[in-house]
């Protein structure tokens, strides 16, 4: 109980636990790329989990895989950069402590670069594997009618759209 009270008191009065800071052996540019790759890993994981075209059903797998990803990123980044993969987290801890390191740009530029690169990578490189070409979406039966593939009908009917009726 006393440990918890000290942590809360320290956080409120200016000694915020979890403040980000580069390790002494890590330069600003190295920290920037470490933060960028850690955030990129998280961004790609989230985008892969929210892509409806992959056929995931809502359940525990998506939050679990994102949580495991965040845990893994923290295991590798905390010793080197403090793992500030979220700019808001880095900013708030620095504001509470009123301690802004010289290389604080690492914690804003790294995640910003990773989000842009991750979005572009997923849109143009990874997502294309789950987006069938237009010709393959419809199959023509012998009587000349157009039919949606079974997988598309299942996803559509789960959403209860009028298209399925």
Radius of gyration: 23 Å
Sequence of strands across the biggest β-sheet: 1-2
Measured as a percent range, the helix fraction is 55-70%
Straight-line distance between termini: 59 Å
Q: Say how many strands there are.
A: 2
Description of the molecule:
With 165 residues, the protein is mostly helical. It is built from 7 helices and 2 strands, in the order ααααααββα. The chain has helices spanning 2-13, 28-50, 61-77, 87-97, 106-126, 134-137, 150-158, and strands spanning 139-140, 146-147. A two-stranded antiparallel ribbon has the order 1-2. The longest helix is centred in the N-terminal third of the chain and has 23 residues, at 28-50. The chain is globular. The model is unreliable at 135-139, 152-157 and 159-165 (pLDDT under 50).
Question: Short description, anyone?
Answer:
This protein is mainly α and 165 residues long.
Features:
165 residues; mainly alpha; two-stranded antiparallel ribbon; 7 helices; 59% helix; 2% strand; disordered C terminus
Provide the fold topology:
Elements: H1 2-13, H2 28-50, H3 61-77, H4 87-97, H5 106-126, H6 134-137, E1 139-140, E2 146-147, H7 150-158
Antiparallel strand pairs: 1-2
Helix pairs in contact: 2-3, 2-5
